[in-house]
Amino acid sequence: MEPNKNETTPTNNTAVNAEKPSAEVAAANTSKPGTPNPIPKNVLAKPGAVPPKGAMPPRPGAMPPKQGAGKKHNYYKMMMTVIDTVKQDYAGFQEKEEINDTKYPMNMLVYAYQKRMVNEVMFLRIVSEYLASLGDPNLKFSMVNHGNYKNNTVGFRARRYGDDLYVTEVGRDDRLKPGDKITKLDKYTPGEHRTKIPKNFMTGNTPEREQWGGFLKMFPSFDVEHADGTTENLKFRHFIIEKPKRKMEFESLNEKTFYICVEEFSQNTADLEKAIEEHAAELTSCENLIIDLRKNEAGTEPGFVPLLPMIFDSEEELGALLEKEAIYTNYSKNNCEHTTKKIQNMKERYEKANNADAVALADQLIAEFNEKSGTGFQKDVPEDDILAAYQEVHEGKEGRYNNIKKVILLTDTWCRDSGEVFVKLCSGSEKVTVVGRPTMGTIDYTNYVNASIEKSFILSYPMSKRQNVVDGHPYNETGLPVDVYIPWTPQECTEDLLRQKALELAEA
Hints:
The chain is of the alpha/beta class. It is 30% helix and 19% strand. The protein has a six-stranded mixed β-sheet, sandwiched between helices. Strands 1, 14, 15, 18 and 19 form a five-stranded antiparallel β-sheet that branches. The two termini are 42 Å apart. The model is unreliable at 1-50 and 57-70 (pLDDT under 50).
C-alpha cells in the first residue's frame, strides 16, 4: 500500500525546499515580557546565551508580512516528540543515525527561548533545519491552523555556481530575469555563507544540488548583477505560495523524434491518455522519443503507466524488473496507529458510497496493521499494481510502438518521487538512455505517515525503505545516476542545453 504523500499534507513547508520563515519573522512575534513559552528549567541556557555554532541569529530587516502570535505550546515537549519519532518510526533512521545531531535543534530552541523569540514560526524553522540536516528530502514539517501565517517564497529559484547564485526561474518577482547573478546575501557571497554553515540545511552535497529556497528568506536584501551589467541592491519580497501549474507538453521535433514533457504523474491519467491518443500518428511512426522529467516533482506511480507501452512491449520484460522491488516497513506502534486511523477514515467514505469491495479491503488492511503493530521492520512484496495497470492499457496494442528504437529520459535534481520510480524502472530497458543530472534521491523511502503534533504541526516521514537501501546502495544523497552527465552551468538559465544534447544523442 503506497498512499499519495501529498494527499493529507495541508501545507507546503518542507525540509527539502527549506521553506522556512526567517529569524526576523520570529523575532517580530515574540511573547510579551512576563509570558514566556513553557520550557523545562533543566534545559534552559545560562544568561548571556549565544546561538549554536553556525546558527543564524536575528538581524534587523528582512521583514515579511507580520504573522499572528499563535498558540502557547510546550516547545520542549514538541521537539522531543519530533526527535523520538525520527528515532523510533522513521524508516531511514538507521542510515541517518551517524548524522542525527539532536543537540543542535535543542540548543537553538533554548537560545530562542532566552531571547524571547519562541513561537510557532520559529519552531517551524528550527525543526525544518533539523530535518534538512538529515539529508532526506522525504522529511517534511508543516504548520497548520496558525491564523495569519502563510507559507511564502521569495518569488524565484536560483542555483549556485561557484560563489554566486544564478536565477534559473522567475515566479512573481518581476524585478529579475533568468540569468541574473546574485553576488551577495547581506554581507557575504552565497559561497561564503555555504562554508560558514557547519550543517547542510540545503540537502544537496554539491552546488548544483543545493536548494536555497528557504535560506534566501532569512536575509533582508541581496546584491544582483543583471545581464546588461548593471548592479543593484534589492530587498527580498515574500509571496504566499500558490499551487504550482504542472506542465504537460507533446511536440514533434522532426519526422524521427518526438518530445514529451510531464511535470506531474497525476493519479487521474485521463489527460495523459488523451494527449497520447491525440498524437498517436507521430508516436507510432517516430524512431526516437525524448521524455523530459526534469521538473517532475509530484504525482503517483499509477500516473506514469500510460507511457510504459512506449518503452516495454511485453509484460514479461516489465514484470522481471518489478519483481526486484521489495520494501521493508517499520511496523512501529505509532506507524500502525496513524495508518489504521487513515484507513478507517477512508473506510467511512467507502461505506457512504456503498463501495463494498473497498470496505472489505480497508478491513483487511486494518487487520494486517493491527497484527503487525510493534513488530518493527518486516519485508513486504508490493502488489503488482503497476503491472496490472500496464496490462490494461497495453491490451490490444501489442507492437504498437515497435517503431521507437531509442528513448532518452531527461532528469535533473528536481525529478523526485514517482518521477524517480519511473526513471529507475525504465532504465532497465536496453533502449533507454538517461541524460542530464542525478535525480532528487527520494526513491529510497516510501509509504508516508503524517503525524499531527498538538494539532498545529504535521511531521511527514516515510515508514518503508526499498530493497536498494537494505542492500547498501542508497540514492538518498546522490540521486539516481545518469548515463550521460551534463554539469549545470549558468548558460542553462537562458538555453535548454539538455534538450539540445538529448536531440543530438537520439539522432546520432
